[in-house]
Every structure is written in C-alpha cells, then in structure tokens.
C-alpha cells in the first residue's frame, strides 16, 4: 500500500490494497493414506461378502428375526433396565454413605466398593448362581430358636432374578463413584447459599445440587448403560440362557454354524446400542443448557456523543477529570459517536 501526497498540501490519500490470494495448504500424504484405507475397507467388505462361505449370510438373514432371537432381545433389555435402575438407586445411596461424617457408615460403603470393583463380574455371577446350592433355604425367626418361616431358595430366586441381582450389585459400585464425582463437581458455595435461603436438604439436593451435577453424571452413566447391555452376555455364568447371546448359542449348537449366529447377536447389540447412544446425546444436550452457551458481546446502549458531559473547551462541552497535579484535564476526542475527533 503506497501513499500519495497532493501538491496542494491536502489530506493524504491511500490506494486500495490488493486482494490477497489465499493458497490452500496441500496434504498429499494425507490423501494417499485415506485412499489406502478406503481400498483396504473395500477389499475386506468384498472378501467378507463373496469369498468367506463361513459367514453364510443366508443363515444370518434366516435367523435375524427369528422368534427365539427376538425373545432373547427382550430378555436382554429387561436385564439391562432392571439392573441399571437398581444400580443407580444403590449407587446414589453408596455415594451419600461415602461422604457421611460417620466413620462406620463411610467404611461400610468403602468395603462394598472395594469388594465389587475388585472382583470380576463373571466370578460374581458364578457365585450368585451357586446361592441356591449354598443357601438351600431361607429361615425367618428369632435367632437360636425354631424358624417361624422357611423358604426354599431355589423356588424363591429364579436364575433371572439372580442375574439381575448380580449385575446390579456390581454396577452399583461403579455408579457410586460416578455420582460422588458429580456431587463433588458442584461448588460448596451452592449448598451454603441454599441453606442461607432456608432450603432443606431434600430441596437443596433436588433443585440446586443434582441439576448441576447431572451434566457430569449423565455421560459416564450413559456409557455404563451401554456397557451393561453388553455385560448381560455373561449371565450364562448364573446360568441364565434366555438372553440374546444364550439363544443364539442354543441355535448354533443345533445348526453347527456358530459364526452366522454370532453375527445375528452382534447386529442386535449394535441396533440397541445405537438407539441408546442417540438417547444419551439428547439427554446430555438437555442437561448442558446454560453451560456451553456463550453470552453475546456487550454493546453500548447509546452513542458516546449523546452523553452529557461537563467542562468547556472551544465553546463545546467536554468531559474533564482531576489530574495528578491538582488541576483538571480534558478527556480526549469526543466529537464523534464512540469517541475520536474528526
């Protein structure tokens, strides 16, 4: 950009700057890498679809909507929902117990978390499947006296119930830590302000603490729900075999084609997981309101020139302020809206 000085001594004028031509940065190796990945994916899909008879896609289509598979999907959803509801309720209880000032209560909660997080869920389910063998009957009455009521454990607790209990107790240990982390993420001043306003413990938790903690609790809880859906495949350790994994295994034992049946089970796991992921997205979006939104830039409501000021300078009203020397100085340019001289 060059300057031109007129011969008459007028104002300096400037030429319009030439428009810059932005050159896009090239990434040749990135394109090559992407092309290689696409080629490998196409070759894998073609090989899977046409060259591997073991997949037997006709068998997959035959049993994808089979009545037994659909019933298995229903049982899998029931196991997931029942277990998560119990786990969330018990996890909240354990999280509150962990924060209790009572050392006995907090110690009980710590031992529970240590036990159920420190042992594999498959081992726990095996133990729950052995409960009818270990405790053949449940007797109710006064200790060291004859039992008033005696119940057969095998008749009282079905394998489905034992599977729900085993999954829920294991998951509750993880939910307790998730809830505790969410509660700790809320500033203590929120609880103090609620007490100052006269709110009780219930209203403080339900209307102040939990709504703010939910944005921290929801994402890992959604992940745990999806994980629970897949963990239901381990209930064969109880043993409970009416879930989708157990049903496909029973069918494969008859048809002697395990790979197509595993694909059938995987397809249904993917379908349900995708639905849960969509629900998790909208739930996270709901509880994140007011957190990710940025406020608009503040703008002056009136122009600077319309503000009345004090002081006189050249017949015009100008703002003044006390100077360090004891006199008064004029605030510079004021003649244009927003400040600045002509």
Automatic annotation (TrEMBL):
One GO cellular component term noted in the UniProt record for this chain: ATP-binding cassette (ABC) transporter complex
Membrane topology per record: Multi-pass membrane protein
Major location category of this protein: membrane
Start-end of Basic and acidic residues biased regions: 333-342
CDD domains, per database record: TM_PBP2
Domain of life of the source: Bacteria
Disordered, as annotated region: 310-342
Protein name: Polar amino acid transport system permease protein
């Amino acid at each position: 950009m060059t300057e031109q000085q007129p011969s008459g001594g007028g104002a300096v004028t400037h030429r319009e700057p030439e428009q810059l031509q932005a050159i896009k940065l090239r990434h040749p190796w990135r394109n090559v890498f992407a092309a290689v990945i696409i080629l490998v994916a196409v070759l894998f899909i073609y090989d899977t679809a046409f060259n591997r008879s073991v997949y037997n896609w006709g068998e997959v289509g035959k049993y994808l909507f089979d009545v037994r598979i659909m019933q298995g999907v229903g049982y899998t959803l029931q196991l997931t929902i029942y277990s998560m509801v119990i786990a969330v309720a018990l996890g909240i209880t354990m999280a509150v117990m962990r924060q209790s000032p009572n050392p006995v209560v907090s110690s009980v909660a710590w031992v529970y978390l240590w036990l159920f997080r420190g042992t594999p869920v498959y081992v726990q389910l095996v133990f729950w499947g052995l409960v009818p063998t270990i405790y053949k009957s449940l007797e109710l009455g006064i200790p060291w006296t004859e039992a008033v009521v005696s119940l057969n454990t095998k008749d009282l607790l079905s394998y489905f119930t034992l599977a729900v209990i085993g999954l829920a107790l294991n998951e509750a240990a993880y939910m307790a830590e998730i809830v505790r982390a969410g509660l700790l993420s809320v500033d203590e001043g929120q609880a103090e302000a609620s007490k100052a306003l006269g709110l009780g413990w219930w209203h403080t938790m339900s209307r102040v603490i939990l709504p703010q903690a939910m944005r921290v609790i929801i994402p890992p809880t959604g992940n745990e729900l999806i994980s629970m859906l897949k963990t239901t495949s381990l209930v064969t350790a109880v043993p409970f075999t009416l879930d989708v994994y157990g049903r496909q295994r029973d069918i494969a034992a008859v048809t002697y084609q395990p790979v197509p049946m595993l694909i059938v089970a995987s397809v249904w796991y993917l379908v349900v997981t995708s639905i849960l992921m969509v629900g998790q997205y909208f739930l996270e979006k709901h509880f994140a309101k007011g957190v990710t939104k940025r406020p608009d830039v503040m703008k002056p409501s009136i122009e600077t020139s319309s503000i009345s000021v004090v002081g006189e300078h050249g017949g015009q009203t100008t703002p003044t302020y006390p100077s360090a020397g004891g006199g008064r100085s004029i605030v510079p340019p004021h003649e244009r809206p927003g400040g600045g001289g002509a």
